[in-house]
Amino acid sequence: MRPEGAPFREGTGNALYTRSVSTSQQADPMIGRLVDGRYRVRARIARGGMATVYLATDLRLERRVALKVMHAHLSDDQMFQSRFIQEARAAARLADPHVVNVFDQGQDSGLGYLVMEYLPGVTLREYLRERRRLPIADAIRVMDATLSGLAAAHRAGIIHRDVKPENVLIAQDGRIKIGDFGLARASSANTATGQQLLGTIAYLAPELVTRGTADARSDIYALGIMLYEMLAGEQPYKGEQPMQIAYQHATDSVPRPSAKNPGVPEQLDELVLWATEKEPDERPADAQVMLDRLREIEQQLGIAPLIAATTAPTGVPYDDEAITGEFTMVLPDAATGPTAPVQEADNATKLRRALTRRRTRGAWLVALVLALTAVAGGVGWYFGSGPGSMVAVPDVAGQDFAQASAAIEELSLVAVQGDVFDIDVEPGIAVGSDPEPGSRLDKGAEVMVLISQGPRPVQLTSLTGLPQEDATAAAQAENLRVSDEVVELFRDEAPGTVVAVRVTPRDGGDTVNCDAGCDAHEDDTVSFFVSVGPVPDVTGLNVGEATSRLNDAGLEVSGDQQRQTSETLAADLVIGIAERGSNGSWRVGETVTLIVSDGPPLFPIPNVVGMTRDGAKAALEEAGFQYEYNGLWDAVLDAVTEVEAQDPGPDTYYPRGTVVSMQIQVTI
Model confidence over 446-483: pLDDT tens digits? Predict the structure, then answer.
């Protein structure tokens, strides 16, 4: 189901163990290690929160496997140990062509591991990322296979609990399988609280959000969301925070996919709505019930799902004769009659001696011929079908594919290209080969030349709003470098919160703003801008106190000051700090300038001498000043009053609100 004409890309590192050798594999101490005396680790495929998955060779059965190794820091955690063993037991109980097989489980040097089948291919998530939405026939085929595998799990009493496109694999040979039963539990153990509620939020059933319980119908809900996404090209619920999406799962109804894609048949609309009912009792009881309905829809639409082929295990060729130990032998001729000792006469003895002497020189010649014949036969056997017929794989690291292919084909081997991501080897150049250099192979055998595709692409989600430690861990989990130079900003966010993210390409390109997430590559450098809290408020402090507080916060204070009048602050008290020269937040270590009060502003007192009492009062009030005079003058008619003097005098400057004393006289 790979897009026609598109190059085949082997996985991007997920739980289904598609081939994607990590860019940092050369620094991984597991590479080349022999696990439990049986599994030779070849390359790293994927890394998750609980384990790392490697491509390995089972030396006993001579086949490739996916080796899932628990992270060392979790090896002492009994809960994770239990989940690891639980995954092996859950998947091993399932014998279905649509379920990723588990072959083995054990511990080596304190590290728990699982051995699973290795399936080169792409995940449904990758396929959706390339195609956005699937043709109706492809969506039905994926759903048919996924339901078949999940139905086998439900029949065995196992709930998957983490159904999503990342856990569905479309193999290179067309097989479709569901895997990663790391969250699987028995149907009777349906409670999921606290740390157990680990399912991806976009596919989380409402009962997990509201009640924390899960059963087979919770898997059905996730399948309904997955089918909607395949048909509509997007998930039904979106939100800035996971809790927003969870709330929509619990309160909203999933819309018909035909609202986004008019080509969706009504039968599939109804199947999506049935599978995503908010009440579990209104959904299909299990995967088999939903599969039966899907098969009816397939007949109605005339679509036949792909049938999974069952193939014999690869490895040592089957040989009846070698197993039974029966070999064909040439028996000596049977005697045809009774035998008796033969008495040789003396003349016969003499005759043999005479003949021997005459043929001595001829015998030496015959012996030499026979010896040369034997040597020639041995050489022919050695180089024709014996050990000499095998050739050693050459070291092709550092060559392009054409050069590597020529070196391999010169030894009568067949070169095939395998793409891997690598941070140290430039694109188009071989990282190595599989099998490794020096391995001996029969002539005509295939050698995969591992060609670097450069650093692995990374889709970095938004890290703003996270504590710096969490943002650092998230970036390092994607094999990104985290710069030691952290820019500390004075912001309103809590101290230690990441407020901006910048990514610098490893090849020295332009730095990218990654505040809302961005595309990057492994080994790119991530720089964080982190809040240290707001700038300290120094309003109302004297200059010395303000300087000390700002210095303690990490800011320098300039010796120069800006002076301003203030109607609320007395002279020489700090009003605040001047604005930053360029836009943006203040950074730790920068120099600020204090704004210091000159006291309240001064205004001229108007001249009211010669005005009547009420006229003088109005003039002073309009100018913002107060007044006082002998209250007895209020009993006198205003028209016969006149201000004969004022204090302070006219045209002197005082703060608004200053009281002007007036002396009044009668003008009669």
Answer: 999 999 998 989 999 999 999 999 999 999 988 899 99
Tell me how crowded residue 161 is: count the other CB atoms within 10 A of its CB.
23
Residue pair 222/163 in contact (Cβ under 8 Å)? The answer is yes
Put residue 173 in one of left, alpha, beta given phi > 0 → left and psi -120 to 50 → alpha: alpha
Q: Is the pLDDT of residue 184 over 90?
A: no
- Nearest CA to 98 out of 52, 132, 145 is that of 145
Domains by residue range for the chain, with CATH: 25-117 (3.30.200.20), 124-301 (1.10.510.10), 390-452 (3.30.10.20), 457-531 (3.30.10.20), 543-597 (3.30.10), 602-666 (3.30.10.20)
Please give the sequence-ordered ranges of beta strands (E in DSSP) within 456-524, or none if there are none.
457-460, 481-482, 487-489, 498-504, 512-513, 518-521
Alpha carbons 616 and 609: distance in angstroms, whole number: 8
Better-scored residue on pLDDT, 263 or 5: 263
Whole-angstrom distance, CA of residue 238 vs CA of residue 205: 15
Nearest alpha carbon to residue 205 among 224, 229, 183, 232: 224
Work out the average pLDDT over 609-622: 94
552 is catalytic: no
pLDDT of residue 332: 34
Catalytic position from the list 162, 219, 419, 523: 162
pTM of the model: 0.45
- pLDDT (0 to 100) of residue 12: 34
- Residue bearing tokens 């001229």: 604
Token pair for 457: 């692409």
